[in-house]
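Renewal narrative, Specific Aim 1. Our central claim is that a sequence can be written position by position from structural information alone. The example that follows is taken directly from our test logs and has not been curated for this report. It begins with the structure tokens describing the chain, in the order in which they were read.
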């Protein structure tokens, strides 16, 4: 479940080729306009992209933007029966005006409206039913009025009864309303503001103060290029560095971290493991423009690129390879370690790799392949992934659905292996 402030992200996209004669500003020739769920809705979209079932709990205004927002969420597969309509509330809209992939200005339409007590009570009464199939609750607070102290206290209490973890992405300086959440996830500036401490104070001191205020099990502090730090009630601290990469746009990176953390905990990973994955997901998100949706495929490819040892998959771990290859063209080349590290093997790999701009997966035919052979093949730049100890090439092909399949004959020539069409 994602509960929080819903808003509509609008992107007005075009080209700016001249300056207005009326004022020293560029004139945008609009080519397209896009509408996407923003705020807590962006967290929900990231969760959908990561393969989760998502229930959205929030509110919209009785306006066209609210209807557009709900329809967009439904189209993406988000359950929307937890969204209430508040008649005197305006659905927040953030319109980003973009020229040639550069954001020129953002135009916001919003008023901060407190959640009606009647709607607040309706949500509280509905919580037992809404939480029936929920594994984790993510609180996405953007300070627009949805997340009240009363509502949040009721949500956390109901979740504690059911042993459902609650992850809160906070807003403002009063963190007392997140009391007894499992994890509270502020950024560095928010920690110091909530602790009422200067920015040059030790982070440990500010973190300890926030833990006292929130009584959370864990405080997760996102620190931009410095990575992520975890602080526990026991006094323990864990730091996770971020891999250096080119930053395209940091918009929505916090939503990505919240979504990845939620997915990982729902799959019963430890908080440390979930944080490592969140760090990687944030790195993928900032390499995209706008509020990016990080998929399991992108996450898998990013994780696999860190170490050539990650290229090798056995039958048990083919799911990760399926995700990494999803939506990509790739060829399988079937080899045997009995062929040895011969020139014909290297030539075959190079020829298949050069045939097309696709990924190359090497399938090792032997049930117990020579580990030196596997290591050498894995070290080759042209080889993206290797499959070992599988029940058969036809079975693998049915699972991963390659674009093409090749094998190396005794004469060193290539045979295009053709399987029945039902494979595809």
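The sequence written for that structure reads:
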């Amino acid at each position: 479940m994602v509960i929080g402030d819903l808003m509509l992200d609008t992107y007005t996209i075009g080209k700016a080729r001249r300056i207005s004669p009326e004022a020293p500003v560029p004139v945008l020739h609009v080519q397209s306009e896009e509408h996407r769920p923003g705020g807590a809705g962006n967290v929900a979209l990231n969760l959908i992209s990561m393969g989760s079932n998502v229930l959205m709990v929030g509110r919209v205004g009785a306006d066209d933007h609210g209807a557009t927002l709900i329809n967009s969420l439904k189209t993406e597969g988000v359950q929307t029966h937890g969204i209430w309509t508040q008649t005197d509330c305006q659905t927040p809209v953030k319109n980003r005006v973009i020229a040639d992939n550069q954001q020129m200005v953002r135009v916001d339409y919003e008023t901060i409206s407190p959640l009606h007590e009647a709607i607040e009570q309706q949500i509280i009464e509905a919580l037992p039913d809404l939480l029936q199939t929920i594994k984790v609750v993510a609180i996405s607070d953007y300070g627009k009025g949805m997340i009240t102290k009363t509502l949040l206290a009721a949500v956390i209490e109901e979740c504690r009864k059911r042993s459902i973890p609650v992850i809160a992405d906070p807003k403002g300086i009063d963190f007392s309303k997140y009391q007894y959440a499992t994890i509270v996830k502020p950024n560095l500036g928010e920690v110091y503001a909530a602790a009422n401490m200067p920015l040059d104070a030790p982070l440990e001191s500010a973190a300890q103060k926030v833990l006292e205020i929130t009584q959370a099990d864990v405080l997760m502090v996102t620190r931009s290029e410095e990575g992520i730090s975890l602080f526990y009630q026991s006094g323990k601290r864990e730091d996770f560095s971020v891999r250096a990469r080119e930053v395209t746009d940091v918009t929505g990176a916090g939503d990505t971290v919240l979504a990845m953390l939620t997915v990982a905990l729902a799959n019963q990973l430890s908080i440390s493991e979930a944080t490592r994955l969140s760090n990687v997901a944030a790195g993928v998100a900032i390499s995209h423009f706008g509020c990016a949706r990080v998929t399991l495929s992108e996450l898998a490819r990013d994780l696999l690129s860190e170490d050539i040892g990650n290229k090798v998959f056995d039958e048990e771990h083919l799911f990760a390879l399926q995700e990494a290859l999803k939506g990509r063209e790739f060829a399988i080349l079937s080899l045997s370690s009995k062929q040895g590290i011969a020139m014909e093997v290297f030539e075959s790999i190079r020829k298949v790799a050069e045939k097309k701009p696709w990924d190359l997966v090497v399938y090792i035919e032997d049930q117990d392949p020579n580990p030196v052979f596997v290591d050498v093949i894995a070290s080759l730049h042209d080889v993206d992934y290797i499959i070992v100890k599988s029940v058969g090439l036809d079975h693998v092909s049915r699972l991963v659905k390659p674009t093409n399949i090749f094998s190396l004959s005794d004469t060193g020539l290539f045979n295009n292996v053709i399987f029945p069409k039902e494979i595809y």
